Amino acid sequence: MASGSRRLRSATLVRSAALLLRRTPIREADLVLELLSSALGRVSVVARGARKSQRRFGGALEPVHELMVEMEERGEGLGVLVAAEIARPRFGVIEQLGALTAAGRALAWVREVAPPRVPEDAIWSACQELLDALDRGVAGTALEREAATQVALASFGMQLIEALGWGLTLDECVACRRPCPEGQAAFVSARRGGAVCRACGGAGLVIGGATRARLLGLSAGGALAAEDAEPAIALVEETLRVHAGLSG
Q1: 176-191, pLDDT tens digit by residue?
Q2: What is the pTM of this model?
Q3: How confident is the model at residue 10 (pLDDT cuts 50, 70, 90)?
Q4: Model confidence at 246, in pLDDT bands (50, 70, 90)?
Q5: CATH topology of domain 4-88
Q6: Does residue 158 contact residue 232 with C-beta atoms inside 8 Å?
Q7: CATH code linked to domain 92-244
Q8: Where are the domains of the chain?
Q9: 172-179 — which CB contacts under 8 Å span 24+ positions?
Q10: What distance in Å separates the CA atoms of residue 69 and residue 60, rounded to the nearest whole number?
Q11: Start-end of H helices in the chain
Q12: Can you tell me the distance from the alpha carbon of 68 to that of 161, in angstroms, rounded to the nearest whole number?
């Protein structure tokens, strides 16, 4: 999506693709919106009159859809939303509870850990990839669809911690640098930054050998299996707690 900016008196008018991370009511008619924008990163803006009239922003202030917004950026202060429209609707996410729940969880991670006012192309791209995958969905039983949703969320989480510079070392012990035997389970500590062998005290979650191999393969375009989702999500959330104090 194209983005750009131009000077508007004491503010800069910025046009950017964006995702809605959170909306908070203030006063009688306004909303404070936290956005992840492709141009500016995570920013907060006030949407004046948004609570009083749905027509004010055309019903565009909803999560998961890709938005195109215009906002007055005012340095360190709260920006002002000038216009918003849905650029890419994702009704497939909204219509499936599991997909909507996963999307909400992912966007909550981003809201808590993405640096303010710093464009992060890798985080933006990972969000788009996840939401598009959830929007497409997969054919199959309810259990198969839920498994695919959790795999997508886990893959996103691993991309997120890599983008933030918090990726985990999974092929060797972070303390002694002894390689982890192929196919063998390993202790993985988010606090210590990756695998920790028994000789170095072990620590953290036990990750099975097959899961560890598939996690290592993600950076080369590999995919996770359904059984990998739960331990991968646990690793992601522990990493976010260690580095950013993720709540929950």
Answers
A1: 999 999 999 999 999 9
A2: 0.91
A3: low
A4: confident
A5: OB fold (Dihydrolipoamide Acetyltransferase, E2P) (2.40.50)
A6: yes
A7: 1.20.1440.120
A8: 4-88, 92-244
A9: 173/197, 173/199, 173/200, 175/200, 175/201, 176/200
A10: 10
A11: 91-94, 97-113, 121-136, 142-163, 209-217, 229-244
A12: 26
